[in-house]
Amino acid sequence: MSHDLDPNQDLSDQLHELLRGAPEGLSEYQLIQALKAHHSTHIPHLELTDRLVLFRTHFLVFNALYRLRDHLNAAGQAQLAISPLCVQLLPYKPGTTSSLSELDPLRDYYLDLKNLRDTTEEDVERLLASFWTRMQGSEEKLAALELFGLHNGSQPLSLAVIKQRYRQLVSQHHPDRGGSTSRLQSINKAMEILQRYYS
User: Fold this and answer.
1) Rounded to 5, what percent of the chain is helix, strand, coil?
2) pLDDT category, 57, cuts 50, 70, 90?
3) How far, in Å, CA of 86 to CA of 180, rounded?
4) Residue 165, Cβ density class (10 Å: 0-12 exposed, 13-18 middle, ≥19 buried)
5) Where are the domains of the chain?
6) Closest of 30, 46, 42 to residue 5, by C-alpha
7) Contact 116, 63 (CB under 8 A)
């Protein structure tokens, strides 16, 4: 994609532009890097190693993605698949609009800017801690699948699919590539759990 993003565009328009240039989809990480490369003024230009910065950047991007999805659906232009590992524009299918927005707690969460304003560093720590608690408790399988972005059942799960996703995540979040050690530990822990269920 050779042209630059218009700095005056809304964040959801900038994301739309980036996704149009990548029909195979982009991960959340790739979208954030592209926005930074294009000097988008809508996200913090700070190191993502700070957990609160990471949370805020993630929240702003997902808020814009859900707004974009609603807009594209209402206009009958396209559908937008949203997950941290792959955000992708898909052909519009009539009749799916109402079912998309009816029951989507994630959409409600990200469209409520109070969640962005009111989340503190301690809250982010708690969110991460609760993830770990679930990883060690009865919900460990679901927590691990959520971390891998495989919990929505859009594809049949096998150990091969899980291993492929694991490799993608490891290369994406490796500290040598600017990822965090704690995130990598979470990914390894999730893989350990899923191996028990899918071997």
Assistant:
1) 60, 5, 35
2) very high
3) 20
4) buried
5) 1-118, 120-199
6) 42
7) yes
Give per-residue pLDDT as tens, 14-51.
999 999 999 999 988 899 999 999 999 999 888 777 88
What the block records as the tokens of 94 is 């009539």
Q: What is the pLDDT of residues 173-188, one digit of tens each?
A: 877 777 777 788 888 8
Give the separation between CA 107 and CA 110, rounded to whole angstroms: 5
The total of other beta-carbon atoms located within 10 Å of residue 131's CB is 17
| Cβ atoms 19, 5 nearer than 8 A | no
What share of the chain in percent tops pLDDT 90? Answer: 36
1.10.10, 1.10.287, 2.40.128, 1.10.3210: CATH of 120-199: 1.10.287
Phi, psi (degrees; rounded to nearest 5) at 26? -135, 150
Give all strands (DSSP E) within the chain, no chain letters: 78-81, 88-91
What does the pLDDT look like over 69-106, one tens digit per residue? 999 999 999 999 988 778 999 998 876 554 444 557 78
